[in-house]
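Lab channel / #folding
Pinned by the channel admin:
"Please post every new chain as: sequence first, then the C-alpha cells as a reply. Keep commentary short and put observations after the output so the thread stays searchable."

First post following the new format, from NK:
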Amino acid sequence: MTRDELDNLAAFLRARLGAPTSADPAAPKTVTGALRTVEQAVLGLEAFFQLAARVPTTPGLSIEEQRAQALWQTLLEMAARWPDHPDSPLLSSTPPDPGPPPAVTAA
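Reply from TO:
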C-alpha cells in the first residue's frame, strides 16, 4: 500500500464509477454512494500516509495502520468487480514465477 498504488486504484475506481449508465432509477444513488466511499477512503489513507511520514513512531500508529488497511481492503474489493482492476494478477508488472528450471539429464 503506497501513495502511487492509492493514486492508481482511486483513478481506476473513479473512471469505472464515473456516471451511471443503467436505466435503473436507483443507479445514480448507488454510483454517488460508491464514489463517496472512494473519496472518503482516499482521504483516510492520505491522512494515514501523512501521519506515518511525520511521526513514524507514534504509539497510535499501529491502530491507524489497521484502519488504513481496512480502507485499502474496501477499495480493493470495490475494484475487484472489474476483471482489469489494478490488483489483478493478469495485469501484474511482475511476471509469475515459472518455478525451478527443468532438470537436465545426462545421456
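NK: The chain has a mean pLDDT of 78.
TO: also worth noting, The CA atoms of residues 77 and 85 lie 10 Å apart.
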